[in-house]
Design a protein that fits this description.
The chain is an alpha+beta fold. It has five helices and eight strands, in the order βαββββαβαββαα. It has a single domain, classed as 2,3-Dihydroxybiphenyl 1,2-Dioxygenase, domain 1. Strand 2 and strand 3 form a beta hairpin.
């Protein structure tokens, strides 16, 4: 399984205050998401399709969560449960609000003229790691890949980064 960090989700109970806070932090105004399932905002935090998400808090104890794009959500959940994780709740299908479908299609085609955007953005699931930290897993639909750097839009780690990391692994093995 391969996963790619695409976002950090910050739950909020007051979008006006949270949006102002994170705009002050980043200098970027959050944009309203196109989903009609929950109120959320997003802003880019890098040039490689990584975002900060500000979404409705769904439970009082909800904490920030890393969001990873995966190719197969069901397989990823099974793999992580077998590795000591715990699935939380069911799978959610993320769709574009019907009022925003035309905008979404036009904006997507503007980024990739060959894209075939559909109203379904993808499927989401939640997993706790062995320490109880919550991860969000997102199987991005093919037509939305341009927004999250998935599918043929995926940018892998370059050789220099991987070589440097492998050296760090070897150095770390020398420590007690």
């Amino acid at each position: 399984m391969e996963a790619r960090l695409i976002a950090c989700n910050i739950p909020t109970t007051d979008h006006t205050k949270s949006n102002a806070f994170y705009q002050a932090l980043t200098g970027i105004e959050p944009a309203r998401s196109l989903s009609d399932q929950m109120k959320a905002y997003h802003l880019p935090i890098s040039n490689d399709e990584q975002y900060l998400w500000l979404s409705d808090r769904t439970v009082p104890q909800e904490q920030p969560a890393c969001v990873f794009a995966v190719d197969n959500l069901d397989q990823a959940i099974t793999t992580l449960v077998n590795a000591g994780g715990q699935q939380m709740g069911g799978v959610i299908t993320a769709t574009v609000d019907p009022a925003d479908v035309d905008y979404f299609r036009t904006a997507t085609k503007g980024r990739d003229p060959n894209a075939q955007p559909q109203p379904q953005m993808g499927r989401l699931g939640y997993v706790k790691d062995p320490d109880g930290n919550v991860l969000m897993l997102f199987e991005v639909s093919a037509g939305a890949g341009v927004w999250f750097g998935t599918g043929h839009h995926k940018k892998g780690l370059d050789q220099q980064v991987l070589q440097s990391h492998n050296k760090a692994i070897q150095r770390g093995k020398q420590k007690p």
